[in-house]
Specification:
By secondary structure, the chain is an alpha+beta fold.
Length: about 150
């Protein structure tokens, strides 16, 4: 094994020293062939100009809210957000997997940046449903039989 390692290192050293060519040697180049192309008409697309004044609102304002209460799956979440220019206020809530309600109140403005306050409230009225399954009786014949393996060296 050491001989193989030494041989590979010797080849790499010879290639990096320039003794062995690094690039493959090819046969003589093919003779030059002249090709004639038919003239091609090129159509240049005109730039599409959009009315930037119609699309940009220097003082955007909006309000939105949603609320999801699904009795079947237990999903409960809501969000309210309001924007007036560069100032955004909002709140969202959801039920975490551990039975706590997470309530996040956030604000964002150019002076203070984004700030959020997160509160977690335990929910006593959430009932955890645990299904119990009767154990399945496994016949003795169906149990796996241990097999002894013997290794030859």
């Amino acid at each position: 094994m050491a001989f193989k390692f030494f041989a590979v290192l010797a080849l790499v050293a010879a290639a990096s020293a320039g003794v062995l060519p690094v690039q493959p040697i090819y046969h003589a180049p093919a003779p030059a062939v002249a090709y004639a192309h038919a003239p091609v008409a090129v159509a240049h697309a005109q730039p599409v100009l959009a009315k930037a004044t119609d699309e940009y609102d220097p003082h955007p304002q909006y309000k939105y809210a949603y609320d999801v209460q699904d009795a079947i799956s237990g999903d409960s979440k809501s969000q309210v957000e309001e924007r007036d220019g560069d100032v955004v206020h909002g709140e969202y809530s959801l039920i975490d997997a551990d039975g706590f309600k997470r309530i996040v109140q956030y604000t964002s403005d150019p002076v203070n940046g984004f700030n959020a306050v997160v509160n977690r409230v335990p929910l006593e009225h959430v009932k955890t449903v645990v299904k119990t399954v009767a154990p399945v009786a496994v016949p003795v014949a169906a149990a796996p039989i241990p097999v002894a393996y013997h290794q030859h060296h």
